[in-house]
Amino acid sequence: MRLLSILMIVALAGFCATRYLVNQDAAVLESAARSLGAGLRLARNRALNDNRPATFLLDTVKRVFRVPGERRQHLLPSGITIASHTMRAERLDERRGAIRFFPDGTSTGGRIALYTDRMRYLVSVDWLTGEVGVIASVVEEAVGR
User: Fold this and answer.
1) Domain total for the chain?
2) Which H or E run includes 36?
3) Using H for helix, E for strand and C for coil, what is the string for 71-88?
4) Using CA of residue 85, residue 78, residue 94, residue 96, what is the dihedral sign?
5) pLDDT tens digits for 78-136?
6) Residue 105 included in any domain
């Protein structure tokens, strides 16, 4: 009886620890997506306010992004995968890309996907309106595993 109680306590502790780590990963991923979204919105606002184009830069290998008008780079957390989809003309090389905002509010558009094995966030920029959206989704497992 005593051994059974100990085993149940260990199993419950393991379950709680796993659930805590999953929730912590989701919070880190959400925070990174919201940070990217805020940086993109700031770039758009700079273009509108300064009445000149503003370029948001992202390096998927170094895991950093830069907002126009700021010297510092914003670091994205390790442990998440980053994929960027921008216009070909805005690709600087294989790892670096840009999204450009124009004074009328439009942009070159693009998407940045942040994901782990369980969650995914998509940060999108509409080319026509320049509006930035952050969408969360659960990564579905392949059928038949």
Assistant:
1) 1
2) helix 2-50
3) CCCEECCCCCEEEEEECH
4) positive
5) 999 999 999 999 999 999 999 999 999 999 999 999 999 889 999 999 999 999 999 99
6) yes
- Closest listed residue to residue 103, CA positions, set 145, 62, 135, 55: 55
State pTM to two decimals.
0.81
Only one residue has tokens 């124009």, namely 102
pLDDT tens digit sequence for 8-34: 565 555 554 444 445 678 899 999 999
CA distance 58 to 112: 9
Instruction: List, in sequence order, every residue forming a beta bridge with 96; answer none if it has no partner.
Output: 59
Tell me the C-alpha distance between 50 and 44, whole Å: 10
- 106 in helix, strand or coil? coil
User: Do the domain assignments include residue 145?
Assistant: no
137/22 Cα distance (integer angstroms)? 14
Give me the numbers of helices (H) and strands (E) for the chain, helices first please: 1, 8
Does residue 31 sit within a domain?
Answer: yes
d(CA 143, CA 45): 43
